[in-house]
Predict the structure.
Amino acid sequence: MKKSLLLSAAIALASTAATAETLRIPHELGFGGSESMDPISPQRFYEAIQNVYSRLVRQGEDGRPSPDLALEWSATPDAKEWTFKLRPDVTFHNGNAFTAEDVAFSLMRTQSETIDSPTKGVMGIIDHVEAVDPLTVKVVLKDSHADFPLLTMDYRIKMLDAETCGGDLDALCESGNGTGPFELTGLDALGTTTMKRFENYYGSKAGVENLELIAIADQDARVAALQAGQIDLVYSVSAEQVPLFANNPDFTVQSVPSGRWVGLVMNTQTEPFIDPRVRKAIRMSADRDALGKLVYGKGGFIVSCDHPVWTGDQYRKEIDCSRDVDGARALLAEAGYADGLKVELFVSDISEGAVKMAEVLQNQAKDAGIEIELVPAPADGYWGDVWMKEAFFATGWSQRPADQILNEAYRSGAAWNETAWNSADFDAKLDAARSELDFGKRKELYGELQKELWETGGSFIPVHLNITRVLSSKIGGLPPVEGFSIRYEDVTKNGSGS
Amino acid sequence: MPSLILRRFGFAAFTIGFVSIVMFAAVEALPGNVCTSFLQRFAQGPRLERCIEQQGLERPALVRYGDWVAGAVQGDFGYSLKKRKPINELIRERFRNTALLGGLAALLAIPFAIFFGIAAGVRRDRPLDLSLSGAAMLAMTIPEFVTATALIYVFAIVLQWFPAVTIVSPGAGFMQMLPNIVLPVLVLSAVLVAHIMRMMRASVIDVMASDYVHMARLKGVPERQIIWKHVVPNAMIPALNVIALTIAWLLAGVVVVEKVFNYPGLGTLMIQAIFDRDLPLVQAIALIFSVIYVGVNLAADLAALALDPRLRRKGH
């Protein structure tokens, strides 16, 4: 086995040439070993499915959909019927041809009640899928959605081989048989999962011959493994760990913007936050740049203005939200709190920096006459007992595209509408944006929604977080893009041995 | 005598039972329950109800405790929601790995410690004693995660002789584990040797000053014979307890060392379980640790009984 070879090689101080063409990346065992090769399983093995399967469309450099298995797509004027033209001569790892039937199968199985996939909600918009001919597929939606290709860009909406999966829409399909740049040779989620270059890949062939996904659950252990040359990269290191690699010629440090955010939430239906002036005053009292530096370190964040759309998103709206203490005081006086305002903020160690963020805001808000009393809550049961129960509390969200996060967190009645945001006008604009086929107009609509959240919303989202990634300097072809956009087939490794 | 042993066993069983109650109560006292900790943000509506029903959480705490204990006695610790596996299956291999690590460390450390302890005690205050005792103090005071980090830096990062973290598949054979296990065993042994050696030295010094050793000297018994026949067996008795305590300490040490080296043992599993709020798994591992702890102490008690006839008399 290669692994034991590697270990004994390390002992004997022998040449490590055997690993020269093998890219070794860690995986964090997020599901503790129950990782599944089915991309829509709740336990999807992200690092593996990313490399063995492909999507219809993928992220382009501008964040917009770019061709992958689908070469072009078009919609009817009501944005309800989408036609995708598929790439010809694509084969799965087992030699089967990739056809429209596979697309229909892969899209429809997201709706299975039995699988109960996390993608079910978002893809529930699909009514049915028709294979027009082997290379043309028509997706009919229940409602208009001008950005439907964006939904198929989700990292879990991968194309499977209907035949390998037995055509059963309700069964998990864990074969690993995909059209991606690497084919699976050994699955071992708790140990080392191995893949080799797929020679018939439709794109440019992978730059390394082998890929190994190595299970290391612990962050410090991943860092030690990278230092010792056991792995080639760590997706994300903490601010404290950066100095271990900075100015070291053996490593490259990348700062990568991401869509992850940690925020403080005001319930817009509860006193005193029911008054939009109070919410705005609290937001205006914050110096976001100073807050970001204190909580996440220099270079660890990008300032945002209380809307959840991140900088890598094509619909991001840049707003000026610099600190305005006098403005905040004036708003408070208008709202009847001329003598100051006292509020309770529930915080817990649930997301990185949540507690620190609350402490910094507490200090900054003082200048505007706002006294924030921090109420520490236990992390156990936080999401059931505090989140969406108290009037003012901490939250954290992972990266989502603009349309998804705006619908999930701000549409009236949505399950995770944590600010209790209830605006018919806002919902109408969300719908309008979805059915607007013109990109420029759509962007304007999403921009208005973001602006509205800054003016009157209930979220305090001071920054989006950057990820600090560290690579061995032997690695090439890996630009500082967020995880979902990494193309491992482009990655090369200079395997001159160590 | 048999009643004495039975009493010790009874007391051990009582301790474990008590620990299980405390642990169950502690988890009960946490806000939320198994389902809310597993589902996190999804803990609402029908999903939560379904989970509560599947886990039988609507039953009273006493019934659930009874079930849990009954299962544990038969070696069935239940099911980990987070890892979607029976806990037994998760624990079996991890237990073997931890036993391998702890066992090797103890096997390596105890003979060395006893030997060094005797050597230092016999040559009290001479250069050999001073250097051994000094080294032991150092090993005791430096926390194991510091030792571990230092060893990783020197042997894994600079020299690259050993891997920095353990990367093996479950079911890996001993030969595959071996290179991974060297540094963790060294770290654990260092502390073990230090503790046991200090105790052994002190107890050798005590015995050397005793009347019967004087007597033997006056009778002209050769020094070597005095040490091996009279001093060492008597000095072993207090040292036994320390060995037991130290092995029990191993359990805590193993958690830290396993984490630093990413070693696939019970310790890392426990830390993961705590971070995942995988409560049934935390309970199971805590119970196993307490059984080991009590078991080791029981073994030390019984060994002391065997070594020292005085303890076997009534009233002790």
